TrEMBL record:
Similarity comment: Belongs to the TRAFAC class TrmE-Era-EngA-EngB-Septin-like GTPase superfamily. Era GTPase family.
Residues covered by region (G5): 147-149
Function as written in the Swiss-Prot or TrEMBL entry: An essential GTPase that binds both GDP and GTP, with rapid nucleotide exchange. Plays a role in 16S rRNA processing and 30S ribosomal subunit biogenesis and possibly also in cell cycle regulation and energy metabolism.
Keyword Transferase included in the entry's annotation: no
Localization, UniProt: Cytoplasm; Cell membrane
Protein name from the UniProt record: GTPase Era
Alphabetical UniProt keywords: Cell membrane, Cytoplasm, GTP-binding, Membrane, Nucleotide-binding, Ribosome biogenesis, RNA-binding, rRNA-binding
Signal peptide: none
Organism encoding this protein: Selenomonas dianae
Segments passing through the bilayer: none
Region: G3, residue numbers: 56-59
Annotated stretches, region: G4: 118-121
Membrane topology designation: Peripheral membrane protein
Oligomeric form and interacting partners: Monomer.
Length: 166
C-alpha cells in the first residue's frame, strides 16, 4: 500500500509537531517558507505495510491577500490528487473562521478527509467527545481521531485510519 496524504490546518494547530512525531525524530524540513501553489513533499513514512507520502498543500488556508484566492483554487486542484486529507485542528480552541474556510475548500473534493483533533493533552478527558461531536456536525469526515502530537498519543490510531484509505 502506498499513497499521498495532505496535512492541512491553520497555523499553530500542531502540523509540524505531528509530522515530526510521525517521523520519530526532529527534522528541519518544516520551515514556514512563503506559500507557493505547488504541493511539497514533507516526508515519506515507510511502514511495514505501507508507504505514506506526507504533503504540504499551501493555499487551502484562508488567504490574507487577493493572490490567496488564486492559490486557494490551485490548492483545491492539488487536493484532488491525494488519497487522504488529514485536517488538523486544535482541541483547545473553538472552531473558527480558519476552520470554516478550510471546510469550504473541502466541500468540493471527493477525497476522504480525516479530522485529527490535536492537543487533547490540554483539555479534560470529558471534554474530548463533545468537541469531536461538534466537528462531526460540520463535515462528513471519513474519520475523527483525537491525538496529542506532543505526547505521541493515538498516532497509531491516526496511521491506522490513514492506511484504510490507501
Ligand atoms: P503548525 O503551525 O500547525 O505547524 O503548529 P506547530 O507544530 O508549530 O505547533 C504550534 C504550537 O503548538 C507549538 O508551540 C507546539 O509545541 C504546540 N503543540 C503542537 N502539538 C501539541 C500537542 O499535541 N499538545 C500541546 N499541548 N501542544 C502542542
Ligand atoms: Mg508548521
Amino acid at each position: 500500500k502506498s499513497g499521498f496524504v495532505a496535512v492541512i490546518g491553520r497555523p499553530n494547530v500542531g502540523k509540524s509537531t505531528l509530522i515530526n512525531a510521525l517521523i520519530g525524530q526532529k527534522i528541519a524540513i518544516m520551515s514556514d517558507k512563503p506559500q507557493t501553489t505547488r504541493s511539497r513533499i514533507l516526508c515519506i513514512l515507510t511502514e511495514e505495510d505501507a508507504q505514506i507520502i506526507l504533503l504540504d498543500t499551501p493555499g487551502v488556508h484562508r488567504p490574507k491577500h487577493k493572490l490567496g484566492d488564486y492559490m486557494a483554487k490551485a490548492a483545491e486542484g492539488a487536493l484532488h490528487g491525494v488519497d487522504v486529507v488529514v485536517f488538523v485542528v486544535d482541541a483547545t480552541e473553538k472552531m473558527g473562521a480558519g476552520e470554516q474556510y478550510i471546510l469550504k475548500q473541502l466541500a468540493n473534493i471527493r477525497v476522504p478527509v480525516l479530522l485529527a483533533v490535536n492537543k487533547v493533552d490540554c483539555i479534560p478527558r470529558q471534554q474530548v467527545l463533545p468537541i469531536l461531536a461538534h466537528y462531526a456536525k460540520a463535515y462528513d469526515f471519513a474519520g475523527i481521531v483525537p491525538i496529542s502530537a506532543r505526547d505521541g498519543e493515538n498516532l497509531d490510531g491516526l496511521l491506522a485510519e490513514i492506511k484504510t484509505h490507501l
